[in-house]
Design a protein that fits this description.
Blueprint lengths: L1 H21 L10 E8 L19 H7 L1 E2 L1 E4 L2 E5 L2 E6 L5 E6 L13 H10 L5 H6 L1 E8 L2 E6 L19 E2 L2 H14 L7 E7 L3 E6 L10 E8 L3 H9 L5 E2 L4 H9 L4 E15 L12 H9 L3 H8 L27 H10 L6 E7 L6 H14 L1 E5 L4 H9 L7 E6 L4 H9 L8 H12 L3 H18 L2 E13 L28
Parallel strand pairs: 1-12, 1-13, 15-16, 15-17
Antiparallel strand pairs: 2-9, 3-4, 5-6, 6-8, 7-8, 10-11, 11-12, 13-18, 14-17, 14-18
Helix pairs in contact: 8-10, 14-15
Length: 511
C-alpha cells in the first residue's frame, strides 16, 4: 500500500516538473482564489467586448481581461511581446514578421494560430482600420506559428497605431468560433485567450469574469473579478467604505480628501498618459470669433488651470505642451497663466469688448463634467458664453468621431504615449479643419525614415501648433482610487498608459 502511495506521489511530482519545463511562464502551483470587486466611474459598451470594434482606451479593460495581442504595453515595456514571442520590422519599413508563441489556448480550447491572426487583422473595423488596411498588400500565415505582413509602401509610423486607445488591430480572436456564432454572438459571449473568461455582462451595470487557469503568461491570482458601473463618486466611496467593493475609482475633490482621512482605506493614484486640451472646431470659419487667434489666446488665459488640477487632478501640474512629460521628441512651452484681465484686453482688441456667444461646448464624459463646467464658468467671467452639452462617454466619442461637434468646442483627451501618435490621432479628426502648412509638414513626417529628420519635423509641427493656439493644453489626467484592506500592493502597473488595474492576472488579495 505504501509503495502505491509513493508511486502516486512520485507521478504527481513528475507531472508538476514536466509542467514547469513545458510551461515555465505559468505558476502551476498557484490556484486562483477569492473575489475582487471594483466600482468604476466609466461605462462599458458591448462593442468593447470585441477587439474588432474596440479601440478606445476605456475599452482596454475588457481587452486586457478577455483577450490578448501580438504585443501590448506591459510593466516597463510599451511593446512587450505577448502572443508573438518575437517580431521584426524590416529596415525599409515594408515587412513586419511575427513569430507566435507555441501552444497558447483560447478559452474554448482552440490553439492560437497564424490563421487567427490573419483573420483578426482583416476583420478589424475600428479606428484607423482603413488607414492600416489600405496600406497593406497582404497578410500571410507562412506557418502555423509565423505571420508576415507586407505593406504597399514604407510605413515608418506603423507602431504608433498599435497601442491601446489607438487601434486594436493586432489583438487576436478565434476564427472558427467567430465564424460559428457571428459578430453579434461574439459580443454576447466573447472567447479570447486572455487571463479571464467571460461570465456575465449587463450594459451600464456590471461585468464579471472568472480566471482562465491555462493563460500562457501565468495563472491569475484572483478567481473572480467583478466590475460595477457606478457613476456617482459619493456612491462609489460609500460602497468601498462598507466593504461592498474593494476598489472605488476616481476619487476627486472632497472625496479625495475623505479617503485620505479614513484610516481603513488607502488612496492610490493611478497616473495616465492622457492630457486634456481645448479644441475650437470653428477656428477655420472666418465668420466665427474663434478664427481670431487673439480670441483663442484669451480663452486660454481665462482658464484657471491651478484650480483645475487642485480639484480634479490632485497631484498634477498644469500642462504646457501637447507631448507627454518625458517624451524625447516633445517640445515644452511655459503653461499659460491665469490672467482674466489680459483675456478681456485681447477680446476687446479682437472686437469683442462685451464678449460673445461661443457656441456649444462638449466637456468629456460624466466623470469629468465638473472639470468642463469649471472651464465654462471661467470663460463666462470674461464674457465668453457657451452652451454646455453633457454626454456620456460612448455618446461623446460617437459624436466627436462622427464630425457632429463641428462649430463647437470640445475638451479632447489625447492618450497616446508619444507625440507622433498624438499628432496622428489629431490628424485622424482633420475633418474639423486643418492648416495647410502644418498638414504639409505632417505628410513629410509620415514618409520620412530617418529618425533625426523625423524629430526635426515633429519639432517644427509642435511649434506651429503652439503659435496658432490650435489646441489649448489644460492638465494631465489621473484617477485617484480608494482601496479597501483586501487588495495587496498597487495594481496600477502599466503606467502611465493605462489608468485601470492591469495586468489583471497580477492582482493579489490579502490572505
Amino acid at each position: 500500500m505504501r509503495t502505491k502511495k509513493r508511486i502516486r506521489l512520485l507521478s504527481a511530482m513528475i507531472a508538476v516538473l514536466w509542467a514547469v519545463v513545458l510551461f515555465p511562464s505559468v505558476d502551476v502551483l498557484a490556484a486562483p482564489q477569492g473575489v475582487l470587486k471594483e466600482a468604476i466611474h466609466w461605462s462599458i459598451s458591448g462593442d468593447y467586448m470585441d477587439p474588432a470594434t474596440s479601440h478606445f482606451i476605456s475599452a482596454s479593460l475588457p481587452l486586457y481581461l478577455f483577450h490578448d495581442a501580438l504585443f501590448k504595453p506591459m510593466p516597463g515595456d510599451l511593446y512587450s511581446p505577448c502572443l508573438a514571442e518575437s517580431y521584426t520590422f524590416s529596415p525599409d519599413a515594408k515587412v513586419l514578421e511575427f513569430k507566435l508563441r507555441p501552444g497558447v489556448k483560447f478559452h474554448n480550447g482552440d490553439t492560437v494560430s497564424a490563421e487567427d491572426v490573419v483573420f483578426s487583422f482583416w476583420r478589424y473595423r475600428g479606428a484607423h482600420a482603413k488607414t492600416i488596411q489600405e496600406k497593406t498588400e497582404k497578410v500571410e500565415a507562412v506557418t502555423p506559428n509565423l505571420v508576415r505582413i507586407h505593406f504597399k509602401e514604407p510605413f515608418p509610423d506603423l507602431f504608433e497605431y498599435l497601442v491601446p486607445g489607438i487601434s486594436s488591430i493586432q489583438w487576436v480572436v478565434p476564427k472558427k468560433y467567430v465564424e460559428k456564432v457571428g459578430d453579434a454572438g461574439f459580443k454576447k459571449h466573447p472567447i479570447g485567450c486572455g487571463p479571464y473568461k467571460f461570465v456575465e455582462f449587463v450594459p451600464g451595470v456590471k461585468l464579471i469574469a472568472e480566471a482562465f487557469e491555462q493563460y500562457w503568461r501565468k495563472v491569475p491570482h484572483v478567481k473572480r473579478i467583478e466590475f460595477y458601473n457606478v457613476s456617482e463618486p459619493a456612491t462609489r466611496l460609500a460602497m468601498v467604505k462598507r466593504g461592498e467593493v474593494d476598489i472605488a475609482t476616481l476619487m476627486q475633490s472632497v472625496f479625495y480628501e475623505d479617503v485620505k482621512k479614513d484610516p481603513a482605506l488607502r488612496l492610490v493614484t493611478s497616473q495616465s498618459s492622457t492630457t486634456w486640451f481645448v479644441f475650437m472646431t470653428a477656428q477655420w470659419d472666418p465668420k466665427s470669433p474663434w478664427s481670431d487667434i487673439r480670441v483663442r489666446k484669451a480663452a486660454s488665459l481665462a482658464i484657471d488651470r491651478k484650480t483645475l488640477v487642485d480639484i480634479h487632478m490632485p497631484g498634477c501640474n498644469p500642462s504646457s505642451s501637447m507631448a507627454l512629460e518625458g517624451d524625447p521628441n516633445g517640445v515644452f512651452f511655459p503653461a499659460d497663466p491665469y490672467d482674466p484681465a489680459q483675456a478681456r484686453k485681447l477680446l476687446a482688441e479682437a472686437g469683442f469688448p462685451k464678449g460673445f456667444e461661443g457656441g456649444k461646448f462638449y466637456p468629456y464624459e460624466s466623470g469629468y463634467w465638473a472639470y468642463g463646467e469649471q472651464i465654462a464658468t471661467n470663460w463666462k467671467a470674461v464674457g465668453i458664453n457657451v452652451e454646455t452639452v453633457l454626454l456620456d462617454r460612448p455618446a461623446w466619442l460617437a459624436t466627436r468621431d462622427g464630425g457632429k461637434m463641428k462649430g463647437g468646442i470640445l475638451i479632447n483627451p489625447e492618450i497616446h504615449p508619444t507625440i507622433g501618435g498624438r499628432l496622428m490621432d489629431i490628424w485622424g479628426r482633420s475633418s474639423y479643419g486643418n492648416y495647410p502648412e502644418i498638414q504639409a509638414l505632417w505628410e513629410q513626417y509620415r514618409k520620412e525614415l530617418s529618425p533625426k529628420a523625423r524629430k526635426e519635423l515633429v519639432t517644427r509641427i509642435q511649434h506651429m501648433i503652439h503659435d496658432k493656439a490650435l489646441y489649448l493644453p489644460l492638465t494631465p489626467a489621473n484617477s485617484p482610487a480608494a482601496f479597501g484592506p483586501r487588495v495587496k500592493g498597487n495594481p496600477y502597473r502599466i503606467q502611465p498608459l493605462l489608468w485601470f488595474t492591469a495586468p489583471l492576472e497580477d492582482i493579489e488579495l490579502e490572505k
